[in-house]
Structures are given as C-alpha cells and as structure tokens.
Amino acid sequence: MKLKLILLALFLLFGAVAFSQTFDENNPPVLIQSTKVINGKYKTIYSIRVTFTAAVEDSNLTTVRNPGNWQVWGVSKTYSIDTVQLSFKKNKCNLVGNWDIYDNLFLRFKGGSEKVVKTDEATGKTTHWGFGKGEAFDVNVQRLASQKNLFAFQHQIKVKAIERNLTLVGNGIWLRSLSLDVISNGTFASDDTVRNGTQSSIGLALNPYYFAAGLIYRSEFNFSYQVETRMNQAEDQLFDVIDQKMKLGVELELPFTNYPIYKLHTRTGYARLAMPLTIDFNYLFGGNGDGTFGSFDRLDFGARYELAFSPYLIVQGEWQHSKFLNAPVGFDDSANFYSIAFAQDLDAVKKTLGFLKFVLGPEDEMRGKNFIFFRISNGRKAPAFQDVDEKAFGFGTYF
Amino acid sequence: MALILNEENLKKAYFEVLATTGIGAAVNDGDLLLQKNVLVVVPESMHQDFPARLLGSAIHILAGEPYSWTVQNLEPTIDKDMTFQSLWDEWMTEIVMA
Q: How far is it between the farthest Cα atoms of chain B?
C-alpha cells in the first residue's frame, strides 16, 4: 500500500476574502455577512443589506425599523429578523438574522410594499431586487466582506490500497498498473467565506505511460465514487455533504510542454522533474435530483502547469472549468477558476534562515519537501463553488 | 542482436533512462553526475511516481534497440539518501539481464 500526503497551510492576506463587489442593476449581488467584536472576539453576523434609492423619510422610519415589517424565508422554513440597523444617512439598512446562508432566501417588506424578492445564494446570483419606482422605495442588496484574519489547511492524500503491476510495453505505451485508490483532496478553513470543501473518492485507476520526444509521460483513467463536502458554518458543520456521485476521469500529461524547462535544467543542473502541462477531464453523473449541485451531471475540465526555474522560483498555475450539463434555465450552470502560485523550496533559503534545519531536519531531508508560497486565486470551482478572490501565503510540506 | 552488457554500455543506457524521466541534471557529463551532492534527491515527495517513470523508461530504453536486454520488473526505492550513484549501484546494475 502506498500513501501520498501533501499538506499546505494557507494564510489569507488582507484579512478577508474579497467578494465581488461589482454591482449590476439587473443582477445585483446578494446578502451577506459581516463581523462584530463581542467580548473581544469576532462574531459572524449574517445580514441582508437593503439600499434605498433615497433616504427614508422620517414618517416611515418606524415602519422600516420594525423587524416585524420584514420577512425572510427559505425553501423550507421562515427565519426571524433580530434587528434592523439603519445607517446614519438613512439610505441603507441591515436586516440581521441567523439564517442558513446556503438557503434560497426570499424577502418581503410588509410596510407598504408586498413585493417578494428571491436571492439564490447557492448559485451566487439573484433575481432583480428593485421594488419598482412609484412604490415606497427601491431597494438593492449588497454582499459585505468579512473583516477577519482567515486561514486554511489544504491537503492531498492518496492511498493505493491495492495495486496490480501490469508491465505491458508496446508501441510506445507502458501499461503500468491497475489500482484501487482512496483519495481525499480539499481545504479546511477557519471560516466558510474562505474557499473550502473536500472531495473524497474510492475507485479503480489505470495508469498507462507513454513516450514522446525522448521523454516519458503519465496518464490515468479512473472510475470512482466521489463524495463532496463543504463547511456549513450556519449549522456548525465542518463536513456538510453536498454531492455524491460516480465519476469518470482522465488525466493526461501533454508531450513537449516540459521541454524548455527540461533543457534549462540540463544547463543549470537543477535536479527536478520538469513537469509537463497536465490536463484532466472528469465527468460526474447526476445524483439525487433535489435541485442542488448534486442533482446534475457535471463536467470538470482542468489544467495545471509548473515552471521550476530554480529552487528560488517555482511558478505553478491552475485553471478549472465546470459545467452543469442538464441544469434548468436560470441555474448558473458554469464556473471558472484560476490560480497562480510563486513558490520557493525552503532548502534554497536555509543559508539565510539556518534555524530551519532544526525545525525541518537536515539539509538533505529538506530538499524538495518544504515550500513557502504566495498564491493568487479567483473564481468558482468544485466542490463549494464559492465566488471568491483570494490572496494567500502559505507553507507546504510533503510526506 | 543485443549489445554487449558491460559497464560502458550500461552506463550509457543509464543516462538515457534518467534523461527520459525528464530529470534535466541527468544528462550532464557522466562523471560529474556521479559525484555526490550533485545527484542528491529527486523531489520524490512531490512527484511520487518517479520510481514508476524510472522503471518505465528503463524498460523502454533497455529492452529496445540497440540494447535489447531483458529488464526485471523492479521499481527502485527512492528515499532521502538516494543519489544517482546509489541508484546505479542498487537498482540499475540489478535489473538488467543479457
């Protein structure tokens, strides 16, 4: 049995996950969360911000401030509004409550307008929020960024529980092994506004290798059962199962794409595998039919590339596209994500930071195993499909 | 017709095998390559399939022309102490039959 474990710690910069603040009159962003210091500790406050097109007149203040004149409900339950906070200029108010932020929320104002507005937090979109001119007021809602120090732990674990070496060579293809793999990839975060979630699977994997232009390239075909989870902070759940599907996957290293770095290494003597551009296709078969992510067929297409110029500069890039194939009209059925990371092998800085040898072991043991990195990532991807824009620095180690 | 299995030919094949895995430093001059500290550590912790690539490359290179040797299906053990010299001593010279 072979075990592969990669662990990364990410510390998100600027104290926040910066949500998209782009405002579209016809498709404005939704609610959501801010923080408040209570007894010296941060507490997450969930609120809906309502922006009035003009200041609320004094004669209407009592009506607007009354939580009983507002109603928020989800797919299966009604939520209570704790307080209504009004801004100094009286043109904004926050409706504060304790609702499931992943629920599809509906809002009704009963103090002069009965218009129902739906927010679809799960897909990051909302229907039009205008109450309409000529009525009591127009409103829009806005997503608020949290102001906290955030961190996350990312892991990649792969266990080859059973492996059968096939060793079939022919026509430039080496059919290496058939194995039963248990895999878990994902991120545990300190807050659900941070990209988080896990993908765990068990399944069969076939590993052919192939030769092109004098180098060997790896490929993989797998068929597995996959469970996806995300953090549900509203219900205090770290592993909220959001998807369970059968998955068919292919992973390919593209020939020639590592050749420039390979030639660079031959000149510099940097003994590192020059990784080619790797692409993967995963088809996930639709599940339970409850209208959530898990109920639709999904196609994930991704690409990863690493340019290891030297131990001082390793650049890694990732791009991911997801498409829900049989989603109904109105469902946000595609997502894009990219990240770029700049990493250094800690072995490269050991002369400056000699104490690292005491922390991470002798020099030879450090090399190629411990990294520091700065990573920029943006967009939405499985499993949680949060729309986040993150800048993080972190430490990575491999066992 | 198989090439004669001697140290010169095997070492030549060894560097071809290493180069085929994409480890750039392996195509340097042979003598330099076998000096300790130049060779150390392939980042196996990051690329766990390096032993598989080595064996696949060895089969591909050694079993093909011009060598035409028989290769035993044994993956090398990669650990923190591995050098290209130890890889030669403990693996390369053990897997080839002619």
A: 39
Q: Of B51, B89, B64, which Cα lies nearest the Cα of A218?
A: B51
Query: pLDDT digit string (tens) for A183-205?
Result: 998 888 877 767 788 999 999 99
Nearest CA in chain A to B27: A266
Q: Write down the residue that tokens 């005491």 correspond to.
A: A358
Q: State yes or no: pLDDT of A142 exceeds 60.
A: no
Q: Which residues of A touch B26 (CB under 8 A)?
A: 271
Cβ–Cβ contact B81 with A under 8 A: yes
* CA A105 and chain centroid, separation: 22
- Chain B residues near residue A262 by CB distance under 8 angstroms: 22, 24
Q: Do B24 and A261 touch (CB under 8 A)?
A: yes
Query: Residues near A158 by Cβ (< 8 Å), separated by ≥ 6?
Result: A2, A3, A4, A5, A181, A182, A183, B48
Contact B42 A275 (CB under 8 A): no
Residues of B in contact with A174 (CB under 8 A): 56, 59-60
> Rounded to whole angstroms, how far apart are CA atoms A207 and A142?
48
Which element (helix H / strand E) includes B60? helix B50-62
- Residue A145 is predicted with a pLDDT of 35
DSSP string, A245-264: EEEEEEEEEPTTTTHHHHHH
Please judge whether A216 and B57 are an interchain contact, meaning their C-beta atoms are less than 8 angstroms apart: yes
Whether residue B23 has pLDDT greater than 80: no
Q: How confident is the model at residue A144 (pLDDT cuts 50, 70, 90)?
A: very low
What pLDDT, in 10s, does the model give residues A14-51? 332 322 222 233 332 334 344 444 444 445 566 776 76
Which chain A residue's Cα is nearest to B52? A176
For the ranges A131-140, A324-333, B48-57, which has the lowest average pLDDT? A131-140
CA-based nearest residue to A120, from A291, A350, A273, A249: A291
Tell if the CB–CB gap between A2 and B48 is shorter than 8 Å.
yes
pTM of the model: 0.66
Of the two residues A370 and A245, the one the predictor is more confident about is A245
CB neighbour class for A101 (10 Å; exposed up to 12, middle 13-18, buried from 19):
buried
> What residues of B are in contact with residue A158 (Cβ under 8 Å)?
48
Q: How far apart are CA A299 and CA A19, in angstroms?
A: 25
